[in-house]
Known about the structure:
This protein has helices spanning 5-10, 15-27, 30-33, 96-100, 107-129, 146-149, 168-189, 198-211, and strands spanning 2-4, 35-40, 50-58, 77-84, 86-95, 156-157, 163-164, 193-196, 216-220, 223-228, 231-235, 238-243, 246-251, 257-259, 262-271, 279-284, 290-293, 303-316, 322-329. It is an alpha+beta fold. It is globular and about 85 Å long. The chain starts with a strand and ends with a strand.
Amino acid sequence: MSMTLDEIRKGMSDKVFDKIVDIFLRESDVLHLLKFDDCVASVGGGSTMKYKYLRKVLPATAQFRKLGGSYTSSAATKQEYEAALAIMGGAVDMDRVLNKASGKFDNLAYQIEEHIKAVVSLFHYTLINGDAVATSATDSPEFEGLDSMLAGTTTEYNTDKVIDLSDITKLKANADEFYEALSLLTKSTKADALLLNTDMITKIQTVARVLGYKTESEEAFGKKITSIDGVRFMDLQNHYTVTGGVATANPVVKKNITRDVGTGLTDIYAVKFDVNDGFHGISLQGGSVIDKYLPDFNAPGVMKNAEVEMIAATVLKNTQHAGVLRNIKIA
Length: 331
């Protein structure tokens, strides 16, 4: 049975789990709509958790024939793919005295929330940029991302040229070309959402104003949801890495990309959320996607450990229901 994260939590009576899932949902628009197929199990007690599926690559064809003539045989083409569940999480160690001294400020709750944000960031980053060979016989702990899945497909658009929106003059000059390309992306994939970065959302909203279109907004979890032609914009924001005590923010949907066609580029991804024929998540059989491990501060032991863990991956069952518009120059 497939369920969204919100549907999964409704069947849980654990109030702490409910609060943790609520933070996940507040941090991720994708997790509101992404359904998880919870059927992955370890086969024969093995150490891998694999999900095998068929990806539709080419449709069947039809043709006319004359009386006495025959049809040329054709077949819809599907290829077998395999995805492995990825284990993502974070841990924090806390002295039991520090917990006692926290007063009104709940340091453990703060640390758990910050680790949830980090898990969401890692999940977002991987569903776009995940290891291209994660589905083969490698030791990679990641899962394959859309950037790799869509390379070379019929829904990978604008690979050989640039649409320049880098300043207002160029944006106005190229607004019609861009909007036509964006419409082709969304309509050809029957997209529910566009996955993109903050700068690209701003550019699209400016294009919409220039062309006289409206972006509609409503409130959800206190955040604005913006759409155009009924397709939601999902800002995947930043993925943070920490090295030597210095944090670096990198947009999940990369910008300032350099390719043969130009510099200062970014891409726009479109997805249709559909567990049977589109883009969806996978999770453990009977699992909850998210698990929490909280300490007992009354038990012996000076240092207490808390962990948040997400066991999931994403797959694409039909390349016609996801796509990418490449090489939009925004810088």
